[in-house]
Every structure is written in structure tokens, then in C-alpha cells.
Amino acid sequence: MPDLLIELRSEEIPARMQRKAAGDLKKLVTDALVEAGLSYEGAREYWTPRRMTLDIRGLNARSADIREERKGPRTDANEKAIEGFLRAAGLSSISDAHVHSDPKKGEFYVAHIVKPGRAAEDIIAEVMPGIIRDFPWPKSMRSGAASARPGSLRWVRPLQSIVCTFGAETEETRTIPFEVDGVVAGNVTYGHRFHAPEAITVRRFADYAEKLERAMVVLDAERRKQMINADAHNIAFANGLELVEDEGLLEEVAGLVEWPRVLMGSFDEAFLDVPSEIIRLTIKTNQKCFVTREPGANTLSNKFILVANIEASDGGKEIIHGNGKVVRARLSDAAHFWRRDQGDLPDLETLTASAEKFGLDLEKPLDQRMAKLDALNVTFHARLGTQGERVARLRALAAALAKVTGADPALVDRAAVLAKADLRTEAVGEFPELQGIMGHKYAALQGEDAAVANAIEDHYKPQGPSDRVPTDPVAVTVALADKLDTLVGFWAIDEKPTGSKDPYALRRAALGVIRLVLEGKARLSMLPFFNIALAGLKAQRPGLGGDVADLLAFFHDRLKVYLRDLGARYDLIDAVLTPDADDLLMIARRVEALTAFITAEEGKDLLAGTKRATQILAAEEKKGTEVAAAVDEKLFNLDAERTLHASIKLASDDAREAIVKEDFRSAMEALARLREPVDVFFNDVLVNDEDAAIRANRLALLGLIRTATGEVADFSKIAG
């Protein structure tokens, strides 16, 4: 079966767009071919900075014929109905139709329509121009003389050539010549921009990839990454160093080169006085270079690793020199930021009011930056006030949380006041990724308690499912305050996540709270702190009319996802989760205990009996059958009724006592004692007795079972 090769070659595609764009090309082309009636054995996409390539193997040479029957009117229908049928079916005469008989409907016309298949080349030539014209680039541009015309091609960078060849391995390939804005598809591509700029004629993928390799283009992005990573590790090792891994940078650099060549440069050791985080980000952001360190060391070395796109005749000396020159200039700027942030601000006299408001010491540089943040009225959000107002809210909320977390109130207050101060430092202004990290360093330099310095950095954590969770009570307290204020604030102004859109990362904030609570084993009722946060916001914004009524439901949804990822069954989570449950740790513990219980034999037996009781009761309630308000022991006729009633009372008391002690396993074991009396009851007792009073009393007894087990979980929601 034939293979299809497509290459779209352009000027340099931004590295961040390449992987997704190549995936989009694969999906768009294969979907279009399948929709047109073609099938294929496999498809794989490739990309370099200057090209996207698609290799489709085992594509049908022709789409299948399509046969269908179209039912028409009765043979005795009027002329207009028959004419309409002929037009719709594409028939020239009624004699071309077939007559079918039906015992009920009589005789009617049927058109047997055959749509012949089409050659794959015709289908490809038809679908490709539209795919290219409508390609979903995040950003695109017009270029060349054709760009002056309305409707001209928009592409991420100027499109230069298209390769489209088709054919079986045992025969010569054919070019499929479609055209897009003057660019005609052919069988010619080009290699490395500098080393091999000559035209290359290709046939199918195997010789295409081989010829590109000879023309100094490594087509496979994953292979380029492996080459860069291996060479970087080797050159670092050869110099007695180790590479500081950076997967994001590796992905980006692999998208910047077609022929990767790894080199090592250096900068003055004097710059090592600057924090390693600043050095790494300076070199990464400005020059896309990797940093190194002594094996096992926490600080960096003065050697960096760069990736060139050419085989330099001088062994890379000029490239190393040029990169080193730029790195030194950027590190000089970074060192300047570092020193400036440790000095006094020039306008301290204007910061007195803000210093008094937050209890700041204007002798200390970080305190000055916090005062400046407040004095400038830097906006946090147009409807949620300034950063200064937000810090005031964090301070109050953190003070309330400290009573629950057991953190030192004075340290919590100091950490909350300084948590956002580094937003006014020059280092964070240049590298926003360093917020919190620089605050930690500057706090340590001015002699803050270690718990305060750590909390300034860690209050942003965790920022995802794999990020580290703070454990120090001060950091946990400020981190909870930060996330709860964010969630309550955006809920209050009705800026909630919708579908896949979450511009303020509120799902991540809720997950952060969940991980802080569950992984830190924090006992925290959420609703009171929602109300404290909302009250603080409304005190600053009296006209704010929002509420957070459904914020707890949002937390429940996030908690379900978190627990399911840990392996909990969805039905057991639903069985435990009630609409007003706001103690996340207790919910998790209940799910854990229920999971262990329900998988044991006693749990399975109790579940069966309990579900039978609740289903009978629910069915009768739905029918409107009378259920007694309370159980009347005088109406008991059988021992099974009396035994079950006494057992329910005893099990309920024991379970309730265990729940108060938060011993959910013991509570379930107490309820498990109902298994035998429930089984005996259903064997010996007819619930739907002819006597209405007895029936109502027995249904009330089933209601006691539902109530007793419901204190632990809603067993009706458990599968099985």
C-alpha cells in the first residue's frame, strides 16, 4: 500500500509552538483522509525549527465505492413527488429506479445509488490547501507580495516550500501538485540553512530522512533532545562538573537547532556571589544555556553549556566567546539588581504611613519594599483592591488560621506582612519566577526568623500535583491564607473557572489547599474561614455583593479528583461526601476507613442488607406508602423485629460514640453487628403486611437502619 510524505517548510517556527503544531498537522490530515473514505496503517509527525513533516504509512490508493438505497414515493404518487425523488437521487428517468413491494405500504420506488471511490491523490490535493490555509496557529502573519491581497495565506512564519509525495514502496513515487498562495507542492526540500542550502529531491520518507541527515538536519526532535542531553552531561563530566537538569529548557533548545553542537563557556567567578537562582534564570532566559555545578553541590559553578546550530570551523571558539560576552553582561545586570535590593530606597520619608500601618521597620530593606508596595497602591485586581489591601486581608486570615494550625502567631503575622514584599524588588521585577525565593533570601539577610523566611518562599506552594508541600506550621498557615483569600475573592466577584478556562489558576489553588490539609494532617473546617475571608474583603469593598455559597462544592469536586488519583473509588467518595461536609481531612479519613471496611467480608454483607432495606424504604416512600414517624415496640409481632430494633439502638450508640472519637473503623465495625439481625429480619418478616399500622411500623424500622448507617456513609450510593 502507498505511503504519503508531507513537509511544510518555513522560516523558523517558535520553539514553544512546534510540538503542538506538528500534532495538529497529523490530526487534521489523518481526520480529513479518513472522512474522505481512506484508511491508513500508521502516521507519525516530526518537526524542526524550519519544517513540519508527516509520514503516513499504508494509505489506501483509492477510497471505497459507496452504495446506498434511497427510498422514494409510491408508484402511484403524483408527478411532482416523483420528479422531486428523481432530482434528489440524481436519476434522469424513473426507469432507472427499482420497484420494491411492502405488504403494508404497497409498491414504491427505490434508487440504488453508487458513488464510485476516488483516487487518494485527488483527495489529498483537495484537502491539503484548506488544512494549510486554516491551520490553527496561536499567532500568524502574512508575507511576500501576495500578502497585500485580501484572504492571503496567514502562516506562523513565511511558508517557503511544500513536499507532497505518494507511492508504494515497490514503485516510483508521484508528486501531488496542489498550490497555496503561489507555493506549489513538489518533491524538493532543503537541508541546513548554512551547511547544506542546496535543493534536495526526495521520494519517500526513508530517503527523505536520510538525505536530510546528510544535509545536517536531525529530523526527530526526541533524538535531538537525546543528543543535546547526552553531550551536555558528557562535557560537564569531562570538566569535573554535573549538569543542572532542566527539561523545559531542553525541549526549547531542541526546537532552536537542526544540527545540535554542544559547547561549554564560562563567566567570571565573582558573579557566583549572586544567588544561584538568579544566575540560572539569567543564563536560561537570555541565552538559552544550561548551568553546571560541582557534583553534589548546592551552588553553581562558573561554567555554562550552550547549544549551537552549526559545525564551526574554529571548534566553536567564536560562538563560546560571543555567548560568554552576553552572559557576563546579563550577570552584571543581575548582580546590580541583587545589590540594589539590599540597599535603602531613596524616598523613605514617603513610606512612613505604610510602615505604621503594617508595623514595618524602615531600617530593613525588605520592610521598605513592602511599604513601597502599599504606598504605590499596586493593583492586585481591579475589583479586589491593591496588593497592600490584600496583605491586610492575608494578615487577618492568617491570624485566624494560626489558632487552628498551632503556628506561632507573631511569626505568622511577620511572614504574612512580608510575603509579598519581594514583588517590589528589582530581581523579581526582572524574573517574576523568583517571587518568594528572593523574599526568602532577602529576609534571611536582614535577620528574620528562619520560619518567617521559609514561609515567604513556601506560601506559594504547592503549585501543582507534584510540587513540594510545606510542613512548617508558619508556612502552612500563610500558604492557606494566600490560597483561601484568592479563592474567596474571585468567587465573590464571580470570576470562577469555566470549562477548560481558569485564568486565575483557581483549580490549582484549591488543590493546593487540599494537599496542605490532607498531607499535613491539618484539621480545618473550611466554611468558617470562607466567611472570615469574605468579611475581610467586604470590609474593604462595602459595595461587594458576592457570596461563596458554592465554593465548598468546588472544593468537593477537586477533592474527588485528588482522592481518585490516589486510588479511591468514586462511589465510596460519593457515599461519604455530604453537601455541607467541610472538614477535608475527615472526609478523606472516612473514605479510607470505608474502603478498608467495604472490601472485607463483613462490609460486603452489611452493604447487601443495608441496600435492601434502603431500597425497599425508598420505593415505598416514592409510592406514597405511609411510614410511621417513630417505631412503636407495641406493634412488634415477631422476635426478629424486636431483635433488630434492639441491635440498631446498640449499634447506633456505639457507632456514634466512635464517630465522636473520629474512630471511623470502629464505627463501621459496630454497624457490622447489624448484619445478622438484618438477615434474620428479611428472612422472617414480611415488611408489606396487610395491616397498615404494622407495615408503617416495619418501614420505620428500616428507616432506623438507613439513619444508623447514614451517620457513617450513604450505603445506597455504593456499587455492588
From TrEMBL:
InterPro entries documented for this protein: DALR_anticod-bd (IPR008909), Gly-tRNA-synth_bsu (IPR015944), Gly-tRNA-synth_heterodimer (IPR006194)
Family from the record: Belongs to the class-II aminoacyl-tRNA synthetase family.
Protein name: Glycine--tRNA ligase beta subunit
Annotated keywords: Aminoacyl-tRNA synthetase, ATP-binding, Cytoplasm, Ligase, Nucleotide-binding, Protein biosynthesis
Catalytic activity: tRNA(Gly) + glycine + ATP = glycyl-tRNA(Gly) + AMP + diphosphate
Localisation: Cytoplasm
Alphabetized PANTHER family for the sequence: GLYCINE--TRNA LIGASE, CHLOROPLASTIC_MITOCHONDRIAL 2, GLYCYL-TRNA SYNTHETASE
A Pfam family of this chain: DALR_1
Gene: glyS
EC number per UniProt: 6.1.1.14
DALR anticodon binding domain: residues covered: 610-706
Domain of life: Bacteria
GO molecular function, one term: glycine-tRNA ligase activity
Subunit-level organization: Tetramer of two alpha and two beta subunits.
